[in-house]
Amino acid sequence: MTVLDVVWAVLGIALGVLLVYVGVQIGSRRTWRNGGTVVVNAPAETVFACLTEPDQLKQWIGGLEASEPLTAEGLCVGARSREVVVERGRRYELESEVTALEEPFALTVVLRHAGFTSTAAYRLTPHDGETVVELVQHTAYHHWWARVFAPMVTRAAQRKIEGDLRRLATVAEAGA
User: Fold this and answer.
1) What percent of the chain has pLDDT over 90?
2) 31-175 sits in which CATH class?
């Protein structure tokens, strides 16, 4: 074995240790944050209807094919529904549950899937005849391997959220 072979072996081991360390650090992070803000030229009541009525949800949430109520009591804390989303040719079924509600100013929904759980908190603030909509979403990935890919998935989710919020403004303004 030459000195060069030893150097390559040491560099290979060091690189392997570094990759494992980085993977563990990324994989150990439990939640990832997304969000955005949009100003809508419509009253809070109109915007809130866009956030809660199944037919309107399909108009602004990209890829949403269906939103089917699973509970009969209507919009209230504890109300659940099944959401069917198609993204990049893949079909996802999620269960959503309303966990906080202050109509027409706040809504928090938990979305559950086999691979992740997301909490989406919407805050609507009327201001000079418009409504400021703020969304903060926290996502927890259930598997370590999913957490390794979470930085890439989170960036893609951020782009989707920004597009969805722009469409929300368009739909709400058309309905105002």
Assistant:
1) 71
2) alpha beta
